[in-house]
Amino acid sequence: MSIVLFTRRARWQALTRQRPAPALRVALLASYTADPLVPYLGLDLHERGLSATLTVGPFQQVVQQCLATDGFLADVRPDVLVVAQRLEEAGEPGAAGDAWATELVAGAEAAVTAARRHGALLVYVLPAIPTARPSGPADAMHADGLVASATVVRQRLRDRLAGDPWVLLVDADEAVRAVGDDRAHHPVLFRLAKVPYTEEVFARLGATAATLVASWFGAGCRALVVDGDGLTGAAHLLPALRELRAAGVRVALRATGDGCWSDGDAVDLLSVLDGWVTDDRPIGEQLADIAAELDVAPAQIVLAGVGAAQLERTGERPTREGPTGERPTGEGLAVEGPPRRVPLGADPAAWSDELRAAGLTDRLPERRWSGGPARSAAAPHAALALDDFVAGLDVQVDYLPVVADGVAEVAEVVARAHDFALTSAPPAAALAARADDLLAIRVRDRLGDYGTSGLVALDRGADRWTVDVFSLSCPVLGKGVEAAVLREVTRRAGAAGADEVVVRWTDTGRNGTARRFLSEVDGLAPADPRVRLRAARASADSTTGSATADAATPDAGTADAATAATAVGR
Length: 570
Description:
alpha/beta; elongated; single chain
């Protein structure tokens, strides 16, 4: 990680400790671990006047979380929903990328549905073209090669989303190409934590997304303020300033005192200035006056000048907040922190080019500024139901006994399963001591084999079985695996002569997904109708009602020792 990116991450950490009043609630859903995007997107939004709280949902659950009416998005109530999918997590491409297109378009449709349900702006990250080439250098010679297939899918997504005025598109492939394939990917971190990209890629994605969001909310550049302090050779700015004014950007000047006018070529700026403030007040007050004079929001001002010291003296700007309870709009967003800055280098002859390269005239498509079509007028698309999506995955669940050599693997799965867990993860030694009570859960579907994805621990009594460990990893959640596992447990319990299965849980502060599922477990039909299934909250220091393990019958042990498999939804 470069010192620049390290500094930006540190600034974000410092900013979160200050707890500025957020203007936006941003939810992120991705097919991979998107947490590294948070500091860059959050800081870039803040620097554009849009302080935000950012919350990352469970990875590889885009469709499930978007189509669910409760859960992550219902808790966050996002103003902005960021959705990122990779082709690599979508299984095999199929002929001409058809299989990829089916998966990712389904995810995009679900994202649009979720954004509309919550009244949120959708930021969709177009997937990068995978770097792996099965045909090697000959991939370009295949009409249905990987690059050709990926290009078809990306265009299908663009065709579906680009016409929606409530959708912004960010291209991950542009970020990857800008960084370079060799520096864009992080294979080791992906194997360990499902983080596919390096910090450089996440930083570029964050900057692009923040720029688009700020423009959509009306926080783009509407006025350029030239910092007159230390400015010598101002005439070199004239070509770029004239272009900015022609593009609709207002131009003003601020300086400490009126000494800047003694420079002859500074007077030449009068021909392009819409206003100026030259007095001894703090820069923040000067900029507030300029914003009021030019009738722009403070967040829409960009400050350009020479020398870091000049640009660091801006201080805090006033905040503008809408009525209590009002959803954020371009006119009601709280604005904090210094304005965006464009530092000018030591060579005045390059100043105009530096201003041109700053992207001050970047604009969203005209449809967004004209209001665009109403959402109800958008072209209709077939609704995707969560049950239909899950049924089409052809999910298969296998249950395997845990041998001594396999304890470390399942312990690692349990340690990482924060969203779906009954309690805090027990140490590996505790699991090893009761290996005979454990069942490893393996999951596969038409998209791939997820390997060991969970663990269930059974305290088997003669009449009652107690489930006190039940953990699942994020990629298999929302696919019906949760219900399939409990049905399998009730089947085994009934075969052993027990008449009740109790799932004991505690609130870990992070297992909201498990708690929501267990709140409806009474409505889950057990595989054996003779067995009652219920969930019970356990106190941290109480085991009242727990069964003892020595009551298990030989038949139950035999059943658990054999590998079993179930098909979800069958």
